[in-house]
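Quality-control log, excerpt.
Job 1 of 2 completed; input and output follow.
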Amino acid sequence: MELLVTSKGSGKYIVTDTKEREIYHITKARKLFGSPITTLTDASGYTLYTMKRTSAGKKPEYEIQLNERFFMKVLCKSMFIDPSIQFETVDSIYELKGKDQKHFILYKNEVQIGTLDTAKMVNNDLVYKLVFDDQSFDDFFPLFAVAADKCFGEMNK
């Protein structure tokens, strides 16, 4: 399966399939206090997941919530040498590992299940191409591209 996650600036993304159908929307909403909240919604507008930054700095951390309950922790492990991002759920660990900030291999519990590649469009927006096994797919996968954008997006522009 293949998904394209296209950055539209200001924390907005559109997720399309290979037939260019919009599958998900990702938006960022500012709160009066605290970190902005990134929301993953399906094509009908139903909120699936929210993501907010829990730690800033050179290696930011995020928390992904499902139905306002903790679901996954996102850790930007390494930024320059062998860049990687780790996603920890209660029963699984997903990792994006690469040799540079534009090409990652996606692992689930240390078994390779896909790739994430970054390309720059003419207008300098970034496009993330997620390719993975159909059996491995879960609806939070587009947030892997968002995490890569938040960790490495400025370096890739």
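Job 2 of 2 completed; input and output follow.
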Amino acid sequence: MKKLLLFVLFLFALNSFSITIKGSIMDEEGNPIADTPVFLVMKKVKFSFKKFKLVEVDSKIVQTKTGKDGLYRIDVDIDKYFNKFYVDFVGEGFQYAKYKKPEVEDITKLVDKGIDIVVNRVFKYNPQWKNVKLVLDLIGKDSPYYNVLKEYGFPDERVKLDDGSEKWKYYDINKEIIIGE
């Protein structure tokens, strides 16, 4: 039994290795952005002859956030089962209203080399941020609209509901939020 356990651990060691992914996130003025999400997305993709394209068959996500200094670090064991690796900055906690959605970084070739990886980002301001900020200052924190506007910005569509509330639709992020009453 002990030999079997050692053999399994040996096989696991052959199929995984450790790397560090680190970097900084700043705004256009060079200021660090604190508490923003950072995701390492690991995917297993295969070619499907039936669909005649690459399809995702499995995935795993490792998440962290930037510190007050805008720095982040992910220490992770990479399982060779996965064959595509990405760093993404958009998810719960991303400030859609303030910043444009940053591009996902494909780090597959760097992961394959087994080296530590640095991915820095400068978030570009959303052109609507100044207008959103003006509205936030006008309506105040007690408004039922405040938190939604602060996080997501102006909706792509507003639908008045029968009960007096509104459904705000954000197409780019496939999100609908009911506000009011």
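Post-run check on job 2. Residues 5-13 have pLDDT under 50 and may be disordered.
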